[in-house]
Amino acid sequence: MSYRLSVSAPLLFLMSAAPALAVQTNAPELSKTAIKLTTVAKGLENPWALEFLPDGRMLVTEKPGRLRVVEKDGKVGKPIVGVPDVVDRGQGGLLDVALANDFATSGQIYLSYSEPRDGGKNGTSVASAKLVLDGEGGALQDLKVIFRQQPAYNGSLHFGSRIVVLPDGNLFVTVGERSDAGIRGEAQNPKNTLGKIIYIKADGTPAASKPAQDGWDPVIWSIGHRNVQGAALDTATNKLWTLEHGPQGGDELNQPETGKNYGWPVITYGIEYSGGAVGEGITEKPGLEQPVYYWKPSIATSSLLIYTGDLFPEWKGNFLVGSLKYMQVQRLVLKDGAVVGHEVLAEDIGDRVRDVKQGPDGAVYLVTDDANGRIVKMEPK
Questions:
Q1: pTM
Q2: Do residues 366 and 332 make contact, with C-beta atoms less than 8 angstroms apart?
Q3: Residues with Cβ within 8 Å of residue 286, at least 6 apart in sequence
Q4: Separation between Cα atoms, residue 358 and residue 368, nearest integer Å
Q5: In whole angstroms, what is the distance from residue 28 CA to residue 276 CA?
Q6: Superfamily of 10-380 according to CATH
Q7: How far apart are CA 374 and CA 346, in angstroms?
Q8: Would you name the residues annotated as active-site residues?
Q9: Do 278 and 297 form a contact (C-beta atoms < 8 A)?
Q10: Domain-by-domain residue ranges, the chain?
Q11: Which residues sit opposite 230 in a β-bridge?
Q12: Residue 159 phi, psi dihedral angles, 5° rounding
């Protein structure tokens, strides 16, 4: 059944739009885990992403366009030179950072960012570079842009973006559809890279031997995405999982498969911020994929961690989801591909949780998105 919405009934829709599958939303609440939060670093300006270096130090991006190393004692290093220019406007800036699998010998990293383009336009790009560190900070060398989202657009919203490095060295990259009503429909156009999951080799060429479907851009894995800011590989199954911002309501957890269409903006469990319907106001349509799980109301999902450590043995295989809106982390327990329970964690952190990463010690490290951003360690109490 499809659900239609009049502009005068947004709240009724949010209350009554039934999920296509009973397991899709409002999973039962789990018993509380006793945790302790400790600030390990502060003074970061709108940090966006964290990646652990092999020696236990942390590599952190700041949205205004800086990359820094944070020492184990929390000391924040000087900005690394050679970072590409970014459009620091709205949701744009320096976004994700990831290490190549051979980083220990190659020093190669990947950065995603909002890149300035001709005519005042911009778009999500990914660059690779060699990171050379010294006692004061370091530098990026041999920087190459390996992916540019097309078409470019003059906007400040929905850049994505997460980078997932696969065991074979290939990359998944998530990119937004740029939000505005006049362009969001391009998420359904398989000939461009707006609102897509991208699948490329380390040099930016298509990783697949042929397009996911006839007529698709060969770098596209899946289409119909809004703004994916969480992505992680389940190493137990070698499957990609993503978190996608809905509009007002309808944040999604998806397990994107190649060649499939995830619906935006044709179907959604959310509504416009104005209160009106998105498109026809429908939640399902033949040929369009349903989310594995969605949040109602939305929590403004940020990043996704699939926990594998020993510090919280009962969490192994669980999904940890950052929340911007409610300033918390949600733990999701899955069984047979469905979410069967959830727990709210770190609800007293007091800041928006932008990134969630597992440390080499098995603790969970949270990046707070603020002008005086922090790295906060979450461990058993």
A1: 0.94
A2: no
A3: none
A4: 15
A5: 30
A6: TolB, C-terminal domain (2.120.10.30)
A7: 14
A8: 158
A9: no
A10: 10-380
A11: 243
A12: -95, -10
